[in-house]
Amino acid sequence: MLYPQSGDHSSHAQSELKLALWQIQADNTTSPELYAWLVKSGLPHNVAILLHELISKTKRVGKKTINIGKIILIKIIDFVKAHPFLVSGIGIGATIGTAIITLITSIPLIGQLLSPIALALGITVTISGAIIGHNLDKRFSGITNDIIEISQHFFTLIVGVFKTIFTQPGFA
Question: How far apart are CA 104 and CA 115, in angstroms?
Answer without folding.
Answer: 7
